[in-house]
Design a protein that fits this description.
This protein has 302 residues and is α+β, with helices and mostly antiparallel strands. Helix content is 18%, strand content 32%.
Length: 302
């Protein structure tokens, strides 16, 4: 059991305790906080609070967070589309609908379950038991290249390359509307949406800098086929950035139009090129993940 203590500032005066804690705790959702309040896990001072309680400037809020019980992850014989593999790294072409690593509601059928079966005990352990080998991720409905590290040395090397923006990451996407510029750079701050903690948004302050370079590959009927290269790697970066300039990705019901004229499972976004310096040899390795069939079919239609 971990105990967290927060002091209420003037800006939070009069807020409900669950709303105040949601703003104070980046790692917890409002529904989770409400659950802890109902379970008697939140106090103001020494008094346990009830749902609906309001906070006052200077209040000390104490919340007790139960220790996380790690599920017993099992290897699963899920076929992998392997783009590159050696004794240190594995690059796979992730299909649409597959979650990269286990989380609440997704403890099987993930990429981690698949690579555990494929690699056995040869996976880095730096990110813990829930994310063995995982040094970066892409969204469930985004397809394409994901690198998996087979040992801690490879993991540390790739993590440093990602931090220093030395990994090539080029995505192909179909966005709504016609882009007026053939290329451009989107440079903003991105952080949690103040009105919806499950979403990200462009912020004027308190976010992290995010840079996306885009170029038009082909103008389509009412849409544009683009390549987006990441200079940084924020959560939902391309989806948020393209929506911020008025061109959300086709099929993106979170940042774009919930009504889509095509039967799609999420955004049309594919991690096509992935390039990195090999952690052992220093050689530059670049993989190119073929576009999935649904994506090629859309391009033909449009």
């Amino acid at each position: 059991m971990k105990e967290y203590c927060f002091s209420v500032s003037e800006e939070l005066e009069g807020e409900r305790v669950d709303k105040a804690l949601t703003k104070l705790m980046d790692f917890a959702s409002r529904s989770y906080i409400q659950k802890q309040i109902r379970a008697g896990g939140v106090k103001i001072g020494s008094v346990f609070v009830k749902p609906g309680a309001r906070v006052t400037e200077g209040d000390e809020i104490v919340i007790c967070v139960p220790d996380c019980v790690q599920p017993d992850l099992k290897p699963e014989p899920i076929p992998l589309n392997i783009l590159y593999e050696d004794e240190d790294v594995l690059v796979v072409n992730k299909p649409k609908g597959m979650v990269v690593h286990p989380a609440a509601g997704h403890y099987s059928g993930t990429l981690v379950n698949a690579v555990m079966y494929h690699c056995g005990d040869s996976l880095s352990g730096i990110n813990g038991v829930l994310r063995p080998g995982i040094v970066h991720r892409i969204d469930k409905d985004t397809t394409g290249s994901v690198i998996v590290c087979k040992n801690d040395t490879a993991h540390l090397s790739l993590a440093e390359q990602l931090k220093e923006h030395r990994v090539t990451r080029a995505y192909h996407a179909i966005c709504c509307g016609t882009l007026r510029q053939e290329s451009g750079v989107i440079d903003t701050m991105i952080g949690r949406d103040p009105g919806d903690r499950k979403k990200m948004s462009v912020l004027s302050q308190n976010g992290k800098r995010a840079i996306t370079h885009y170029r038009v590959l082909k103008q389509l009927k009412g849409y544009t086929y683009v390549e987006c290269r990441l200079e940084t790697g924020r959560t939902h970066q391309i989806r948020v950035h393209m929506a911020s300039i008025g061109h959300p990705l086709l099929g993106d019901g979170v940042y774009g139009n919930k009504k889509c004229p095509f039967r799609l499972e999420g955004q049309t976004l594919h991690a096509k090129l992935l390039g990195f310096e090999h952690p052992r040899s220093g050689e530059y390795i670049e993989t190119d993940a073929p576009l999935p069939d649904y994506f090629k079919h859309l391009l033909t239609i449009l």
